[in-house]
Amino acid sequence: MNETLSRLADTGVVAVLRGVAADQLIEITEALREGGVTAVEITADTPDVADLLGEVAGSFGDEVVVGTGTVLDSETARTTLMAGAEFVVSPSLHEDVIETCNRYGVVTAPGVMTPTEAIRGYEAGADFVKVFPAKTVGPGHLGAMKGPLGQIPMMPTGGVGPDNAADYIDAGAFAVGAGGALVDYEAAARGEYEAITETAREFTRVVEEARDD
């Protein structure tokens, strides 16, 4: 397994940061790291995303694996991976994004909903697939896809929280992606970063326990 993919699997939880304020980024990332979440995905529609990627990579080094999400085209993929993104995620299937990431040896995942999309993305060279939006279909759908497509690592994102993360792990997910259920931006604005750490700790505990069952 690719080293970056292994690191995503090890943490089990990928934090999706959308529109994060530059002056809160390092503190939020540190709060997540302290809670055991060591994978951070900064969405490409975040202002100055290239600078933010570089800031996280420079501040945490190997302690945090940093990637970019909401990548819709090859130009954005190349810009963000050149800025330091170690993995690239899309909400939908874009074969040009996969091709660009393969060219530079960067882990990539398209967003999929059906078995046809999953196998198409994997055959195009994706390292894993993002089942999105997961809340629309639930853990049963992911589990049903894993039946015939057990060779494809799957990460549900969208509506995943501490209350259902274990269900997705039980269904066969190698990791889960979480945004608002994991990162409380209002708490961050108040400087209450320990709240984010506690939620991260709960997320990782749930995932670890589900894996041990």
TrEMBL record:
Keyword Lyase: yes
Functional pathway: Carbohydrate acid metabolism
InterPro entries, A to Z: Aldlse_KDPG_KHG, Aldolase_TIM
GO molecular function: lyase activity
Coiled coil: none
Keywords, comma-separated and alphabetical: Carbohydrate metabolism, Lyase
Subunit-structure text: Homotrimer.
Family: Belongs to the KHG/KDPG aldolase family.
Record-given protein name: Bifunctional 4-hydroxy-2-oxoglutarate aldolase/2-dehydro-3-deoxy-phosphogluconate aldolase
Species, as recorded: Halorubrum trueperi
